[in-house]
Amino acid sequence: MKRLTKTNTLMLCIMTLWFVSCNSEKNTSNASYENPYEDQVDSILNLMTLDEKLGQLNLPSAGQFTTGQATNSDIGGKIEKGLVGGLFNIKSVANVKEVQEIAMEKSRLKIPLIFGMDVIHGYETTFPIPLGLSCSWDMDLIKQTARIAAIEASADGINWVFSPMVDISRDPRWGRIAEGAGEDPFLGSRVAKAMVEGYQGDDLTKNNTVMACVKHFALYGASEAGRDYNTVDMSKIRMYNEYLPPYKAAVDAGVGSVMASFNEIDGIPATGNKWLLTDLLRNQWHFNGFVVSDYTGVSEMTTHGMGDLQQVSALALNAGLDMDMVSEGFLTTLKKSLDESKVTMDAIDTAVKRILTVKYQLGLFDDPYKYCDFDRPKADIFTDEHKAFARRVASESMVLLKNDDQLLPLKKSGTIALIGPLADTAVNMAGTWSVAANQKESNSFLDGIKEVVGYKANILYAKGSNLDYDPEFQKRATMFGKEIPRDSTSDKQLLDNAVAIASKSDVVIAALGESAEMSGECSSRSNISIPQAQKDLLNALLDTGKPVVLVLFNGRPLTIPEESKNVPAILDVWFPGSEAGLAISDVLFGDVNPSGKLTATFPRNVGQIPIYYNHKNTGRPLDNKEGKFKKFLSNYLDVRNEPLYPFGYGLSYTTFDYSNLRLSSDQLDSDGSIQVSVDVTNSGDYDGKEVVQLYIRDLVGSVTRPVKELKGFQKVAIKKGETKTVTFKLTKEDLKFYNYNLDFVAEPGDFEVFVGTNSDADLKSKFKLVE
Ligand code: BGC
Description:
This protein is of the alpha/beta class. Helices cover 30% and strands 17% of the residues. Strand 12, helix 18 and strand 13 form a beta-alpha-beta unit.
């Protein structure tokens, strides 16, 4: 590279920036991609030293980067030298501006930084954990949560969010199942698209849109034994059909960045896996954004046994990784690898170009401070409007698991006992991965119930038990400021107090389950039941003979066979977010009729895991629905095959009857479509919403096919006494799958179609796909 004097470097810089601001075209889609910023990017690249290039590929964590210290810190010094491409997890306009000023005023080429953050389910206004959110089955609502998160985050200086997390998981032992949309690739793909569209909007250069980052690419949700960061091993055919679709949906929706996962794929960690990051992502899916590693994903490859830092950094770059989060392997070793011809300048330039392009797409070269408007935080963050939306979304996400004798909804009268360690803890309501949540102004269940019931009923409260008997376990389960203080009262006394209060009440609400940090990253569990202290509390409350409603807090499906048998009403509220208490109370007292449906199967016991609705038939399926054991068929000696609650399951205060399933034709032509219609009658006493679900079964295939696959759903509001006809359209596209050669095909032949209220739907019909 030619040596440039200071003056002509500056001139070139100014000219480049001028050229850019006159050419602010946008491109957030990846169809037949032509980079509109190619010339600008190239002209900057030509000015860069090798160190500056490697700097663009470097993403340190802001850590405890605080105002005033920026210029003195190690990171501040690196930014000055052009050795940082972006920073993450730094909060507030003042902090972001201060750091951006270093890049813009003190670094040689004045290339703006990007600012990322783990904005997973809302920002200061927090929505239900993603698993809960997916149970709303409402894509407009989900998209709007991402839109609001983008508005709030961008108002606080952020322009890049590490979301959506779209890892399919069939293993509730894995704590990160909380962060995704559950077990189904079809639903997961719809959620992925909705979230990318919500974050990125229609114009990434606007100051209230942010670049999304789909993660964790790929297959992270299939870690062996549900233990976080563990090995993944899977056939290609399963990958393509069951685990990859949501990532692809995010790419098809124009996601700007992709995060490589921690796990290995076919024996090579994703961070250094060329098949994954180049052959699949770039060549097959035509992704044109950039790929970032997960936190220390590059250096962890040394621990995986892939070589020293220099080796693994070269491996990652050559595989197609563009940005190195935290490891600084790219920054510190790629120069040597270049000298030794282990990487090429072309590979480095390609990665740099991708990152510079994104900075153009975000409009940062036009205005590096466009996300640093000091008036915006007050106007745009944690607003009444956002909170009202959070309350609505939370109530739409809750799943009514059981409601014997219509115990729910409760009346706002008499004496109500609210009991349990989750009843009065506002800090736990946001759930896991809520780094920016405004916990101080969020409401606990107890706050909410008092507000919703007002003077109409007498609310009594007792804690009843600690989260768990084991204080060490409780410590591990209540990190990151999400404490549930341990009571100095003895376990017996806590229980006795609760029983005394329950005995004086007309109804008991037990607020039990997991704390926020019992799910999420590195929160795997081998036993996914309610902790024993709380189980004992629940039994004592049931023994009072009072009607008991279990309000279940959880970041994953739990094993609750006894609770399911003994407690008359169970409402699963997940972690509902900022307006938790109000939203739960809206549902409990019938201001909102629950309509959530499970997106991950609830097993009867951990031995059934992995358990999921779209399994294969096997050559020896159990042929009875009563769960009667049969020798030499695929079943267990000690537990029946079916789950406790299947995928798609969820009750309402009203009832819905399905009838008159009909097809417009029993034959589907290759270029045609058929209509599948069903009548749904609200036969109960309340207006309500129902998620009508359509599944298919491909009866004969060139490879084995699942017993059911979700292919459509509609959430419809039906008034009491009303019947609505719900119609789905099926085309050949809907019947496609990846065959043995990984071609995406629909094979002619017979199909069954099922429509119903959950994945157990048995109202069915048949059609034939003809060539
Ligand atoms: C997680 C990612 C997250 C990253 C940055 C990692 O430990 O796996 O999901 O985006 O940290 O905070």
